[in-house]
Amino acid sequence: MPNLLVEIGNTALKAAWCEGTTLGKTYRYQGEKTMEYILSITEKEKPEVLCVASARDLTEQEEKLLGGECRHLVVLDRVHTAPLLGYSLPEYLSYDRAAVLIAARYLFKEKPCSIFDFGTTLTVDFLDAQGRYCGGMISPGCRTRFKSLGRYSKSLPVVNTPETVPAIGTSVQSAVEAGVISGIMFEIEGYIGRYPENIVIFTGGDAVYFARQMKYSVFVVPNMVLMGLAIMTEDYVRKHIQ
Q1: What is the pTM of this model?
Q2: Which of these, 39, 71, 34, lies nearest to 56 by C-alpha position?
Q3: Which tens digits make up the pLDDT trace of 71-102?
Q4: 3-state secondary structure the chain
């Protein structure tokens, strides 16, 4: 019986079936009826393990509801942190950052890594060659920066991520485009320059976009959070079911 992974993020829900650590069919949902959407996935097939990682804390009622859809329920949020024990990661790390690091250790064994996760926030985390966590940074993500400029400055428009990045702005809109994208690129290049020996990994919604802007060789790994959850779920199965 396959397992089901669910990530309830800040802006969207992502889910995937998995066999062991291999991801299968994936889903994406952007709306408020997250529980109903999860139930629509499990309606035809019940998972052995349902692993739900959420940016918001699940209620007792939601836990009970989800627990009825599987044989084993694993919850990971700010209250339920036990699944992260044993991975030698700081307790302050959010579930998504922790899952990405767990996936990076699995994919790039004995390699130092610089991991960039492009989402609502831009997170940058570092692992040494032994897989030890070295620390990281958090700053606003690409779309968050565009929205913030439009919201907090009366004189600036709300701008979307441009397909082509101008080298320098020749209008208000292109100045915002150049400023936001170039600013993020300067950040990326600065962090890469700190650890030039590290493998560079991009993940998250804007990973492909920024990989195209790079002069450096980078690994683009989609769905690293779900991959990390798959590894954690497989570890749970070995410890508690088999």
Answers
A1: 0.93
A2: 34
A3: 999 999 998 988 999 999 999 999 999 999 99
A4: CCEEEEEECCCCEEEEEEECCEEEEEEEECCCCHHHHHHHHHCCCCCCEEEEEECCCCCHHHHHHHHCCCCEEEEECCCCCHHHCCCCCCCCCCHHHHHHHHHHHHHCCCCCEEEEEECCEEEEEEECCCCCEEEEEEEECHHHHHHHHHHHCCCCCCCCCCCCCCCCCCCHHHHHHHHHHHHHHHHHHHHHHHCCCCEEEEEECCHHHHHHHCCCCCEECCCHHHHHHHHHHHHHHHHHCC
Distance between CA atoms of residues 163 and 31, nearest Å: 26
Taking the C-alpha atoms of residue 93 and residue 16, their distance in angstroms, rounded to an integer, is 23
| Angstrom distance (rounded) from CA 198 to CA 3 | 33
Burial of 168 (0-12, 13-18, 19+ CB in 10 A): exposed
Strand-by-strand arrangement of the 199-204 sheet: 133-140, 121-127, 113-118, 199-204, 219-220
d(CA 6, CA 49): 11
| Domains with residue ranges and CATH for the chain | 3-88+226-240 (3.30.420.40), 99-225 (3.30.420.40)
In degrees, rounded to 5, the angle at the alpha carbon of residue 199 between the alpha carbons of residues 140 and 208 is 50
Read off the pLDDT of residues 27-45 as tens digits, 9 standing for 90 and up. Answer: 999 999 999 999 999 998 9
